[in-house]
Request: fold
Amino acid sequence: MRTPPFNLHLPTTVSEAVQISAELRAEGRETDWIAGGTDLLPNYKWHLNTKSDVISLARIEGITSVSMTEIGAMARLSEIADGGEAHPLIAAAARKVASSLIRNSATLGGNICLDTRCFWFNQGEDWRSSIDWCLKCDCGTGADCRVIVNQNELCVATYQADLAPNLMVLGAAIHLAGPEGERSLPICEFFKLDGMTRNVLREGEMVVKVTLPDEVGQWQGEYQKLRLRESWDFPEAGVAAAWRLGGDGTLAELKVATTALESIPRLHDQEVAPIIAAGWSGEESITALAKAIQQTVKPVNNTAFPPNYRKKMTRVMCERALAQLSIN
Amino acid sequence: MGDEQMKGYRQQPGKLPFKKPGSGGGKPFSELRDLDFIPESLDGRLAQPHGENRHDYLLTGSSIGRRTPMIDDRWKVTGQAKYGDDIRLSGELIGRILRSPHHYAKIRAIDTSVAEALPGVEYVLCGQGHKTLFGVLPVTKDEHALAVEKVRHVGDLVAAVAAVDEATALEALRLIKVDYEVLEPVHDMRKAIDDSEHPIHDRGKYHIGESNVQKRVFQEFGNISAMKDSLATSAAKWKFAGVNHGFTEPHAVVAHWDPSGRLTLYTPQQVPHYLHRALADVLDVPMHQINVYRTFVGGGFGGKSDPFPHEMCAAIMARETGKPVRITFDREEVFWTNRGRHPSLLEMVLHADQQGRISGIETDALIDGGAFASFGHVTTYYNGVLHTAPYEIGAFHYTGARVWTNKPASGAMRGHGAVNSRCAVESGIDDLCDRLQVDPITFRLANLLPPHSTTITGFRVTSIGMRECLERVRDASGWVEKFRKMPLGRGIGIGCGFFISGSGLPIHWDPNKFPHATVHLKVDMDGGVVVHTGAAEIGQGSDTVVAQSVAEVLGLPIEMIRIKSRETDTSPVDLGSYSSRVTFMNANAAISAAMVIRADLLAAAAEITAADEKMLVIGDRRIYVKRDPAVGVSYLEALHKALEDRGALVSSGSYRTPPMGKSHKGAAAGLAPAYSFSAYVAEVEVDMETGQSKVIEVWAAHDCGRALNPLAVEGQIIGSCHMGLGQVLSEEMVYGRTGHLRNANLLEYKIPTVHEMPKVTPIIVESNDPEGPFGAKEAGEGPLLPILPAVVNAIYDASGIRVNELPVTPDRLFRSIEKKIKAEEVDNALQLPNPNLQYSDLQNVVEARALDHGKRDDERQLDVEREPYHNGALFGLDPAIAPEEQTTDWVISLTPDEDYLADPRLAGSAWKHTERRHMGGEN
Reply:
């Protein structure tokens, strides 16, 4: 296994990074951002969509902050998990990512922008040649999707990152910088339902930071992660829930999001709204909501667990994530 | 002290008249010894639970029984150990392998011209020029250096390139054009039993029909007709996924033809000698021209115990280029090389009679061998014969078949061939006990073979510590308070194990002519002992146990023993590290060799001191009269005396198994000079809503005869638990709908992490084997067997789900829970009934028998004049006579009759074919 050679660029400011990217693209060269490298480098070793130029964000100053309301793109997951500054829900979710060694390197930005995964895709070159490649990495062969055959249009690789659904339920905004300037948008609008393009990042655009609303401290939450082993494994399904209680201790607001069930993480406002509208009744509402969410998720067969199991577990995890609200 | 009282040479400790070279410099004193621990040279006695051992008189208190860190541990932890890929020779080329993208295809043509023209490419190798077949077993050689006519699985070796660097080699692989004619692959082992248009291999006249059946076995022993007249029957159809060893170090090899025209092959190998033979065959040079150098081995577990094609490729390319060639595998290639545990379909039927005896075991095992034979011939037998003990059984019916499919080859893996069927039989016993409503530990205790007995298939079993294992895990785990008494979702289970301690027959030669293991010793003026042994140190501690044995006999600290086990040039021939043979055979050989040196030293010491040789004992670097320790000489003094006139002391010791076993075809499979026994209790937690199981604690008792190094034995027990837990809960080679190995990497191949590892309490049971070195037996593989059934039985206790598919991943268990919810007509998993136990009348019967048999076994263990005991005595036969000689009811049958063939079980249906040599004229 050999990492293919690439040119490494080491900008020290965001604007320099954006500029390098733009210049390289102008020369017709392709670029990737590298943050912690825990996702990109294994993929490069497998020769998955490698680029000639890689721009490291490691030396950029000022994008590593961790606080209740702001987390820089280059904040390490170990800092988020154990630093004591991040929102408890975000910290708890970060603690469930991969292993402690990986968390020392992995970053918030990298985790949000994690490449989608699929067992037909995350394989060595020899292996992929034995299936005659796949849509997500077709190596110029025009290969079909191996998960859902004969469709040849949409990549259904699974988004298997832990932090995004938790940021979603806390109402985070994501801040981007690119050749056309800076912009920010709700993190719910960041992802794009396509395993290949994955998100709305434009050419040469990078994630700078994530911000959370000022009153995020009033929100509590819970993240449930389905996986075979309690270390290393990507989520096979994940449910994040966050809620705010009113002055009288009753439920005021509730958000639920899921991850690892399709090519994007998804906020389930549509399923939550009618249940809240009908009046929160604790356990019964939880059961109904969990059922409703289970019905909306559409996992496909491209991760370790079979999709029907992941779907059924979504309900159980929903119930467990909301268990604290059962007596309300 | 007057001169007249002086008898011979007397020496005060520390008052040497002159310093001897190497006497310890400023530290010439011996350490204080525990005199009680040191027996007299002759007629010594040691208080032991199970009597004396023939090696007791050799104990010096130096090393045996002490917690001894591995002698090479510092090399490893300081990063100075050289593993396969650490060997760097100047001017090396990097070799890479082109692998088949097809499951099964004919190679029409290979065009290497473009690759050869690439600058930096030194050699491109194809299979056509090297058609010599090789394989670990002489009866089933079916591998080539590179594919000759056909590729047999995705990842099969097609061509090899040697180039100046890895990038060039990889680029060259892309430039090799192979023209394939794709053939219809076989992925399903059930279909491999049938005739095929293109059988994966052709064994000529020995081919079984036109099928892909590589080996089939039919065995019936005992009172077959009576077994079905049973009080309870447990029947289950099992499905076991294939698992890989998951060793840390990928395969790597460096081949170097030196200027004298000899090949040195550096490779992490468990079986250097078999590789030595295969290399000579394939390279067509005499064995003396080859030196196989075993590097440090980063884990083997059976996965490095075949001669491998890539080793041949490296050797050939090094010869052709005149430069060293290094090949290192990616993890994906390791999975494609595989040799892991066979995916298996197993049917297990157990019968129990009115008295709670196991009146019969019927097993049918279809095992998926993948594309090559490897050890499979033996595996097919082991799936049957290795679960005929430790219980006394009324009948044994076994049908087994190993088939070729278009998958990476299965082979030998820790617990070779015994693991899956052991899991099924122990789970079956648990089920029987559930049906009979008796306690499963009591039931087992009432059905054990006594020590020094003969099993139903004719294995000669010597020491048995099974009973003690069971009793100790029962007491340690709080079994009585917990079993069937914990709430839903929490459970406890028991499993036992039985494994060979070395295989009785060497693969390549007649055991009556050549020993299994040979050890050479050399002691020169410096006093250090050089040990030459061919036992392959693969991390299990074989160097350490050999060093300990020598150190013990000679009364030396282990640091004075130097093990030279790396090179076939300097090592005596040894079969290697497999079938848990090293401690038993090599330590025995080492003891024999050390006894010769010991005799020389004692004679020299007697000459110096004029003491009676019989009164001398060896302590820490001293030889002295036990009752008068002041009379004695230092080790070096005795050694120097012994060296006079002859120079370095050299000696050779060897071990070979005694003649044993029955004489039927296949009788040798599973024969061993001794057997290990084990019993584990596991406590698990099952999340009834998700199907996730977590093992909380394991109590693991293993009878290793005698723990020469308790630290190593405990390490093996804990490591076995980890490895077995992987197979039972998470590890699986997943072949998707297209037959591609889906998870050929260590992220998706789910080896348990530290979070999944329960607390393990190792319990060492010492039954003191009469033929083992100092009483020892194996501890490397046997400890793996019981963890699987202990966990699945605990899952039943926790959830009421009788598992019959491994690994028990959460989704599988959840599916069973869902089915059970439907069957029980309850709303959710939390309302499912918990298994319960209301003792039946039979409980008293088995309890009484367990008590009786406990006394019987204790007496038998210590009684040297004991009568023979044949399996069958429990069923009313005379124990002293082989049962088949007593009654015609007791059958031994090795071929199925027409009745059976009219309605065979799955693997048994392999017998519907006729071997080609028998087709001949009459067809």
Remarks:
- Chain A has a mean pLDDT of 95.
- The domain at 218-325 of chain A is CATH 3.30.390.50 (Enolase-like; domain 1).
- The longest helix of chain A spans residues 307-321.
- Chain A is about 30% helix and 20% strand.
